[in-house]
Amino acid sequence: MRPENQSSVSQILLLGLPIRQEQQGMFFALFLGMYLTTVLGNLLIILLIRLDSRLHTPMYFFLSHLAFSDLSLSSVTVPKMLMNMQTRQQSISYVGCISQMYFFILFVGLDNFLLAVMAYDRYVAICYPLHYTTIMREGLCVLLVVGSWILSCLHDLLHTLLLVRLSFGANNIISHFFCDLAALLKLSCSDIFLNELVLFTEGGMIFFLPFGVILGSYIRIGTIILRVPSTKRLVKAFSTCGSHLSVVFLYYGTASGVYFSSSSWGSKDIIASVMYTVVTPMLNPFIYSLRSRDIKQALEMCVNRVKFFNW
Question: Given phi > 0 = left and psi -120 to 50 = alpha, else beta, which region is 16?
C-alpha cells in the first residue's frame, strides 16, 4: 500500500443526480418536501407509540425502532444532497465520505434485521396467539432489538475497516449523490479482491438470512391459514400482516434494484437509490398509519388533546 496515494485524497466529488441545471430548483423543493415529510412522519410514529399506552406492544415497539432507523437512513444522505444542489458545491471530505458510508450501511442493515424481527413477531401472533404474550415478552423484544443493533454495527465496521486500508489515487469523482461502498471501491487503486469477496459473501448473508426469516415466517403463516381456510381468518391475517408485507416488498424491491444492478452506476441505478433512500422511508409511516387502526385512534386522541388545550 502506498501511503502517499491515500493521503492525497482529501476531497471527493459527488456528481449528484443526473438532472439539468434549470431543473435544480424544482427537484430541490421536491426532495426537501419529501425529506421533511419523512422526518415528521417517522417522528410522529415514534411519539404516538411513546405516548399511547395501547401501543406499548411488541409490534409497535419494533415499529418505533424501524421508524428511527428510516429517519436516520434518510438523514444520512438527503441533507448533503440538498446542500450540494443549493450551493452547487459537490465536494465532500474523505473523512465525511467514509462517515456517510458508515452510517448508511449501519441503518440499511438495521432496517434489514428489524423487518425480520417484525416478521417473526407476526408469525408468533398468528400461529401461537394464546402463547403470544408469553413468547414475545419484554426481555426477548429488547434482546432482539439490541441484537439487531450489534449485528448491524459489526457488519458495518467490517466493511469500513476493509475500505480504509485501501489506497486512492487522483480519481476522486463518484457519479452518485452519496458515498456508496461499491462506488468508493471503484475509486481505489489497490487490490479490492478481499473487499469484493467479503461484500458478496458476508454482505449476501446479511441480506438473505433476514429475508429467509421473513419468507419462512410468511410461508408458515400461509400454511396455518390455508389448513382451515375461512374468510374471517384471511381478513384477520391480512389486517395483521398487510402493513409489514407492504414495507417488505417496498424495501427489498428497491434494495434489489440498487445492489443487483450496481456494476456501473447509471441513471436507472441512481433512481433506484432515490427510491431506496428517500421514497421508502417517507412512505413507511403512511403505510402503517393508513392500515393500523391503533395508530389512527392514537393520532385522533392526540389531535383531540391538542384541540382541548387550545380551547
Answer: left
